[in-house]
Write a structure and sequence with these properties.
Oligomer: single chain
Number of helices: 5
Number of strands: 5
Helix content: 40-55%
Radius of gyration: 24 Å
Strand content: 5-15%
Shape: elongated
Structural class: mainly alpha
Strand order of the largest sheet: 1-3-2
Largest sheet: 3 strands, antiparallel
Length: 161
């Protein structure tokens, strides 16, 4: 990993990519989403303050545990004067995100258990399937072996015939 001398306070996008392990395209994407910022030189080249390394590390760690970018952006925006996140910031934010992750884990466990049920019975009946028809909402109005997709992505039961 290339070392950057302490006297250098700004990094090119290539230096930031090499040090952070993030692709240049990812850094541009993070910048477009307001997660990191740069200044432009007279030649219109990006220059990132050294603190961007910690912000990128913060973003990547949060992404690895499944935190959406919008939530990460909100967390970074709450920091005073858009400062670099500290260990204390990470501890506070990760504690708040823990409940969200726990709920997601519960949902995934329920999905896995229902998937096992479908594999076990082998019917894959869409009119009573807990995966395709949760709580049998379609069974209250119609029955059928197939669900139709309406414009806009909404699922509706087929017409009875």
């Amino acid at each position: 990993m290339p070392q950057i001398p302490e006297k250098i306070h700004e990094l090119t996008v290539g230096q930031l990519a090499a040090r952070s392990g993030a692709a240049v395209s990812a850094l541009h994407f993070y910048e477009s989403k307001g997660l990191i910022s740069s200044r432009r030189t007279t030649g219109n080249q990006r220059r990132y303050h050294r603190d961007a390394l910690r912000r990128v590390a913060f973003v990547r760690a949060a992404q690895r545990v499944g935190i959406p970018l919008a939530t990460i952006r909100e967390a970074l925006a709450e920091l005073p004067e858009e400062r670099t996140p500290t260990r204390e910031d990470w501890a506070r934010l990760s504690a708040a995100w823990r409940a969200e992750l726990d709920e997601r884990i519960k949902q995934l466990n329920r999905l896995r258990d229902h998937l096992t049920d479908c594999i076990g019975c082998g019917c894959l009946s869409l009119d009573t399937c807990v995966l395709s028809n949760p709580d049998d909402v379609f069974g209250q109005s119609r029955s059928g072996s197939r669900l139709m997709i309406e414009p806009g992505g909404r699922r509706t039961p087929p017409e009875r015939g």
